[in-house]
């Protein structure tokens, strides 16, 4: 089995892809350690600030030393330059908020999992043409579960993951999975501004455990 398929399987098994960005290197490390301790084995750091690349390199060092069974990916990759920079830094997979065929080509050339963000059926079709195995529905808080329910039959067999608007409660998660998604992206609803600014790592641990349990019960 290729690494691409192993990572995809890990996302499907976990049912959740946690994601965040923080300027602080120390804070980023503590959040990664907390997520791992709570049971997360595949995770997305997002390229949303000036410290993203150096922080990612440090996170990879920590991962390699302490968590060898964790898949560490990078998100918010919109350009080939960003893709190449983080591939060189050792990312395991790439997540994007958009469909950029040039980024897809880079990932496909090296057999890397590329998860593009789509908002319309046309974008989904373009993503499929460029071999997207898993498609991120973004912004999911705008589109809602009804969007997935409405388009899933048009794209039979395609795997979808909403990001935005996913909450840590059984009813919300059940609605998303019932609509036809295979996993959910969890950003600020899990790793909130308070968690980052106040170092509420015990709260993050408890919420991550709860989210993972609810997802297994409702997916």
TrEMBL record:
Family named by the database record: Belongs to the KHG/KDPG aldolase family.
Domain of life according to the entry: Bacteria
PANTHER family: 2-DEHYDRO-3-DEOXY-6-PHOSPHOGALACTONATE ALDOLASE-RELATED, 2-KETO-3-DEOXY-6-PHOSPHOGLUCONATE ALDOLASE
Organism the protein comes from: Pedobacter jejuensis
Pathway membership, UniProt: Carbohydrate acid metabolism
Keywords: Carbohydrate metabolism, Lyase
Subunit structure of this chain's protein: Homotrimer.
Protein name, per record: Bifunctional 4-hydroxy-2-oxoglutarate aldolase/2-dehydro-3-deoxy-phosphogluconate aldolase
Pfam family, one: Aldolase
SUPFAM superfamilies for the chain: Aldolase (SSF51569)
Molecular-function GO terms, alphabetical: lyase activity
Presence of keyword Glycoprotein: no
Keyword Zinc: no
């Amino acid at each position: 089995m290729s690494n691409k398929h192993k990572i995809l399987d890990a996302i499907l098994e976990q049912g959740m892809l946690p994601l965040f960005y923080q300027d602080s290197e120390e804070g980023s490390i503590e959040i990664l350690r907390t997520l791992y301790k709570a049971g997360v084995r595949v995770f997305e750091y997002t390229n949303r600030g000036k410290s993203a690349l150096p922080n990612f390199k440090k996170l990879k060092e920590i991962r390699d030393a302490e968590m060898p069974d964790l898949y560490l990916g990078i998100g918010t990759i919109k350009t080939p330059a960003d893709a190449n920079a983080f591939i060189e830094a050792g990312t395991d997979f790439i997540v994007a908020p958009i469909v950029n065929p040039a980024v897809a080509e880079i990932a496909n050339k090296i057999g890397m999992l590329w998860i593009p963000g789509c908002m319309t059926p046309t974008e989904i079709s373009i993503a499929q043409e460029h071999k997207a195995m898993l498609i991120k529905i973004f912004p999911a808080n705008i589109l809602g579960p009804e969007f997935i329910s409405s388009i899933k039959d048009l794209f039979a067999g395609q795997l979808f993951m909403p990001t935005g608007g996913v909450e840590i409660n059984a009813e919300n998660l059940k609605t998303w999975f019932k609509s036809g998604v295979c996993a959910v992206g969890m950003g600020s609803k899990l790793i909130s501004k308070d968690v980052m600014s106040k170092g509420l790592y015990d709260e993050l641990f408890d919420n991550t455990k709860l989210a993972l349990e609810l997802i297994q019960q409702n997916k």
